[in-house]
UniProtKB/TrEMBL annotation:
One of its GO terms (molecular function) is fatty acyl-[ACP] hydrolase activity. This is Acyl-ACP thioesterase. InterPro entries: Acyl-ACP_TE_C (IPR049427), Acyl-ACP_thioesterase_NHD (IPR002864), FATA/B (IPR045023), HotDog_dom_sf (IPR029069). Keywords: Fatty acid biosynthesis, Fatty acid metabolism, Hydrolase, Lipid biosynthesis, Lipid metabolism, Transit peptide. Residues 16-138 form the Acyl-ACP thioesterase N-terminal hotdog domain. It comes from the Bacteria. Residues 170-234 form the Acyl-ACP thioesterase-like C-terminal domain. Belongs to the acyl-ACP thioesterase family.
Amino acid sequence: METITYRQWHEEGTFKFNVETMVSFSQCDRNKNLSVHELLKLTSDIAVEDFNQRNMSRDTLTAAGYAILVSRNSFNIHRIPVENEFITVSTWEEKSEPFQFIRAYEIKDSKSNEKLVTGLSTWLLVDLNNRRLLPIKKFTMREPLDTVTEHDCLKPEKISLPENMTHLEDRKIRYSDLDANGHTNNARYGAFAFDAIPDEFKEKKLKALRINYSQEALYDQNLEIKADLSDSEKLTVAGFLNNGEKPVSSFECEFYF
């Protein structure tokens, strides 16, 4: 039996961080493909570990009064990773926007070097003392980066919601949806959205996705999941919180087939 050694490393002279891993049974859907929420979890976790290994762990950030929270994700899926596939997940920071960190991703088959998934995400800098957003120039725990590369995914930008979206289901936030920040983990929103769409779309080849996080969903709150079902090649899905007179969007998502 082949012995596989999993590695983690930063490429010398760059901030590119690489992790080798294998897609496990529990990360896959019934078709043996890496599930949407596990893709979101995988890329979020490697971003956090990149910061950990650059002396910017969550505890260190908290002690300095900072939180860095994912705001938007966009992925182009060339071929979705499958069960037992040996993959290399890479991430690196790029030049920040005034109020957003920019991070890029690439997932490849470790053996053939086939490009599987490429993506971009944006992250917000939050002052923990007053829960307000800070401009990225206020972050002094690492030198600003000026890397800018070409990307083949959609830009992680605002998702416009159509009018008269169809109600799909209501989803209550449970304890297992929460993370150590006390709110719903970002990957769970991807599960909420994909679980709610009609079954015929779940069997289609997912070519790309975007997901934006607008307002945190907390324990025991209800999300009303709605979608625009008018396009067979693109689904727009959103989750709404009823916090008052008018429902507020908690997340917006686009699936491209």
